[in-house]
Design goal:
InterPro entries: GPI_mannosylTrfase. The chain crosses the membrane at residues 16-34. GO terms for molecular function: alpha-1,2-mannosyltransferase activity. This protein has 168 residues and is of the alpha/beta class. The protein folds into two domains: 2-32; 36-167. Helix content is 38%, strand content 18%. It contains eight helices and five strands, in the order H-H-H-E-H-E-H-H-H-E-H-E-E. The protein has helices at residues 2-6, 14-33, 38-45, 64-67, 90-95, 99-105, 107-114, 132-136; strands at 51-54, 73-76, 124-128, 141-150, 160-167. It has a five-stranded mixed β-sheet. Helix 4 (64-67) links the parallel strand 1 and strand 2 (73-76). The longest helix has 20 residues, at 14-33. The radius of gyration is 22 Å and the shape is extended. It starts with a helix and ends with a strand.
């Protein structure tokens, strides 16, 4: 306020101050209660599930911080750093692909290779909407629940709804 006063502004128009405050409140409510809400809702929905697989980008959903279930048989696509490389070159680091990267490089091939082998078939699979067509082709699962997540997201892999698929 002193900044504007020192530069010759006499007074803020009260209607603009009120408009600014209301706009900030609306934006705050949207980003804390609406946007990306689906990732919390899906955890609440699956709280008592015996087994869950998350086919989502790394760190998309809260994990045991919300599940609080030590008996849950669950897995997710990992994004471990290349700690196995001893003094890696910049080129080796650039070429390293974690499990999540490998999945998004070739989703259908990844599922055929890993699902049921090193990733056990869970009771529920969780994906974001961009993978809906791939999951609809997956035998043995059907869509059983959908949660609104976002109108927009900085990561296109996380756009749209969070979808839960149940094992037939």
């Amino acid at each position: 306020m002193l900044y504007f006063t020192a530069r010759g502004y006499e007074k803020f128009q009260p209607r603009y101050v009120i408009l600014g405050i209301l706009l900030n409140i609306a934006i705050g409510l949207f980003f804390t209660n609406v946007n990306e809400r689906g990732v919390i809702d899906v955890i609440n929905y699956l709280h008592d599930s015996p087994s869950v697989g998350f086919i989502t980008p790394c760190h998309s959903t809260p994990w045991q911080s919300h599940f609080h279930n030590p008996n849950l048989n669950a897995w997710f696509l990992t994004c471990e750093p290349p700690l196995h490389l001893n003094k890696p070159t910049l080129e080796e680091i650039k070429q390293y692909r974690d499990e999540s990267d490998q999945f998004y490089d070739a989703p259908e091939s990844f599922l055929q290779t890993h699902l049921g082998v090193d990733l056990p078939y869970p009771q529920h699979l969780v994906v974001f909407e961009p993978l809906e067509s791939l999951m609809n082709e997956l035998k043995g699962y059907h869509e059983c629940q959908r949660f609104f997540n976002s109108y927009f997201h900085w990561d296109s892999r996380r756009n749209g709804d969070v979808i839960v698929y149940c094992r037939d």
